[in-house]
Amino acid sequence: MDLTEMGKRAAAAKYELQNLTTEEKNKALEHAADALTEHTREILAANARDLERGRESGMHQGMLDRLLLDQGRIVSMAQGLRQVAALPDPVGECLESFDRPNGLHIEKCRVPLGVIGIIYESRPNVTADAFALCFKAGNAVILKGGSDALASNMAIAHVLRQALEDCGITKDAVSLITDANRAVTGAFMRMKEYVDVLIPRGGAGLIRAVVENSTIPVIETGTGNCHIYVDRDADLDMAVPIIVNAKTQRIGVCNACESLVIHEAVREALLPRLQKALGEKHVEIRGDERVCDAICGAVPATPKDYGREYLDYIISMKTVDSLEEAIDHINRYSTHHSESIITDNSAAAEQFLNRVDAACVYVNASTRFTDGYEFGFGAEIGISTQKLHARGPMGLKELTSYKYRITGSGQVRPD
Amino acid sequence: MDLTEMGKRAAAAKYELQNLTTEEKNKALEHAADALTEHTREILAANARDLERGRESGMHQGMLDRLLLDQGRIVSMAQGLRQVAALPDPVGECLESFDRPNGLHIEKCRVPLGVIGIIYESRPNVTADAFALCFKAGNAVILKGGSDALASNMAIAHVLRQALEDCGITKDAVSLITDANRAVTGAFMRMKEYVDVLIPRGGAGLIRAVVENSTIPVIETGTGNCHIYVDRDADLDMAVPIIVNAKTQRIGVCNACESLVIHEAVREALLPRLQKALGEKHVEIRGDERVCDAICGAVPATPKDYGREYLDYIISMKTVDSLEEAIDHINRYSTHHSESIITDNSAAAEQFLNRVDAACVYVNASTRFTDGYEFGFGAEIGISTQKLHARGPMGLKELTSYKYRITGSGQVRPD
Q: How far apart are CA B141 and CA A136, in angstroms?
């Protein structure tokens, strides 16, 4: 389908979707979940074509793994849809209501955003996940997945659209851009007339390209150069397992710890223990001079290291002489995602919470908890690292806007 | 000052500003108010230079009026600062707090946005107003005013910066871009590293230019192609004064009514009364065939008319045969600002409130109430017509973001 036609249809669909009842939406999500498992064979056949193309073009194993679907992954996708159906419907919630002296009654009510555009990379499960969240929040969604996963995404989107139609709902609630031409993606980012919000999901390069080129309001997600600061008053027995967890529990995620900031007063006691614990996990340490003094085998860090999101078994380390210096260092290099302090000093904790500029600031916990499920939102469309609209994990509520409903009895504005 | 240097200083200032107490901020605002009136002479002298340049370059009277400052207007500016000082401080408010099963305690707290960029046109009072609102919400602000008002803006900004310094607060809380070169404005819109949000205040052309060129998240404000729909069940005695008020009480504002949608069943009864009432105010009527049949002297409307924000003594009129058709027409041509239905039918009112896609939807009232003061917010930085972050009148709360503060006792994410 032509991109403009797709935009028009999505923009028309939003008026239908905003008025669906919770029951209608949940029924459609359940039906779509059934349809996905019923069409396992077709989806796997399409996925096999993507994998074959990937192998032929020399795609490396990690990428192939991300692209791969199997019966288990399709069952998980279907379960994802059912989980979203089980979540409370955010639409229609009255956020505030007040009366004005002139008798006007004003209500501020949650409404869908309208049409959401999502640009994502290789994992085909995002096709189903993103649809489910956008749909439950009353939005139409236009998806642009990675070209590597095109056949898989087309198969999934086809099943979802058919399932909606079976339920008497417009299939334009979900559309997939199938033209892999870069110019088409560029045009999509400028479809301001039809698309209300654009959410890129992927690496720093994708996000930068969207921010640079979009005229549609963007929610930036994902890049996390997350720090843990070990304060002079830290309990080191607590610090070591938190650091190991935040760095190594899952390597390639945005809430993993990429950099450690260490108060000089605990440097000599902490570093040998970290060298051992991180060494067991084969983590390379890149540190400043004082770190390298305490850890033999540590690689000298360049200033570039402090700005890097490694997503790998590498961690940078920086020594500081004060809480102040730690906060300044973090605010300088942070991507404003998640930052943690390890301390038993409540005044230091309070300073850190107040002054570090990030979506999520932690005391005595792993940064890995910045996650929609871990926050109890039940689901997540991404982690916002900007300050406009939503910050941190974004669930269903973050996929809504609001409107003011004002009821009068003939009020006019006096001269 | 060099633009990059200005950005860096504002970005450094935000860390100081976010931690000011309410008392410190209010004291500074009061002091700045005093300083403005104390420096009336210097500000008026600068303004006289702007006016002279304006006259020399053939600026028309309306623009000169907007540019003009006098003692009264400076007193109003100072009062504006005092009013903002009297408003509640939004920063620090706890929006939500909850505990997770693993013992993590999560608080969602209001924080400043950081650095706000504001690009505006000729009125020099915006320099003081915008500073006051951004500052009270804990933000640094970088202002880019119209080049017509450069001397006035410089004089006002100088007084504000000095007043801050007198109070021991960084004067980088407010900066003014004085280079009128377009390339500088272009570079400002791409200073993503230092500026968190950009708010254009002005006409449709300015807003379009900012949306097209900015890499900083933008809040769109202002353009209002606002409709009033007179339903078949409307009380015409109520409809006529509402329409006259919404169209003519103030012509050049974004919440003025630009277009009327009339149900066929009331057309013949309503139009002669409107012809008389709007005729007294010298409003030109541009209507479809049925409107022109009922009003002699009405000008035939072109499709373009329905999309226009006249900001003038002109109104377009469209006849419809159903509520459905009215809603479709409005959703097609609306700028999503303010839309009103006149009806005694509560089902029709409910349909309209639910299905019309606008920041403010009204029943039986003038669209002119879409305003921060009328809503009781005490002040306003603009009216957002986008769905991301804020919609409708934006007061102090809309100049904030939030962060999650998470307190643990050693929690790590299980494998």
A: 38
Cα gap B400→A37, rounded to integer Å: 44
Task: Say which residues have a Cβ less than 8 Å from residue A307's Cβ, sequence separation at least 6.
Answer: A225, A333
- CA angle B34/B40/B46 to nearest 5° reads 135
Tell me how far apart the alpha carbons of residues B174 and B167 are, in angstroms, rounded to a whole number.
14
Residues A156-199: pLDDT tens digits?
Answer: 999 999 999 999 999 999 999 999 888 999 999 999 999 999 99
For residue A316, the cross-strand partners are A259, A286
Interchain proximity A361–B415, CB inside 8 Å: no
Distance of residue A31 Cα from the nearest chain B Cα, in angstroms: 26
**C-beta of residue A214 within 8 angstroms of C-beta of residue A198:** yes
Contact flag A412-B246 (C-beta cutoff 8 Å): yes
Give Cα B399 distance to the centre of its chain. Answer: 12
Contact B147, B181 (CB under 8 A): no
Q: Terminal CA-to-CA distance of chain A, rounded, Å?
A: 53
**Degrees, nearest 5: CA angle A304-A203-A174:** 165
Are the beta carbons of B361 and A406 separated by less than 8 Å?
Answer: yes
Provide the chain A residues 120-179 that lie in CB contact (below 8 A) with chain B: none
B contacts of A361 (beta carbons < 8 Å): 403-406
Q: Is B158 buried (19+), middle (13-18) or exposed (0-12) by CB count in 10 A?
A: middle
Tokens of A220: 């930036």
The pLDDT of residue A203: 84
pLDDT digits (tens, 9 = 90+) for A73-90: 999 999 999 999 999 999
Residues paired with A260 in a beta bridge: A228, A317
Q: What is the distance between the alpha carbons of residues B391 and A108, in angstroms, rounded to a whole number?
A: 10
- Residue A104 CA to residue A98 CA, distance in Å, equals 9
Residue of B388, B392, B412 with shortest CB distance to A404: B392
Cβ–Cβ < 8 Å for A306, A318:
yes
Cβ pair A362:B387 closer than 8 A: no
Tell if the pTM clears 0.90, that is, is over it.
yes
**pLDDT tens, residue by residue, A281-318:** 999 999 999 999 999 889 999 989 999 999 999 999 99
Report the SS3 class of residue B151.
Answer: helix
> Two tokens at A111?
């409404």
Coil vs helix vs strand at B208: helix
More confident residue, A29 or A122: A29
pLDDT band at B362, cuts 50/70/90?
very high
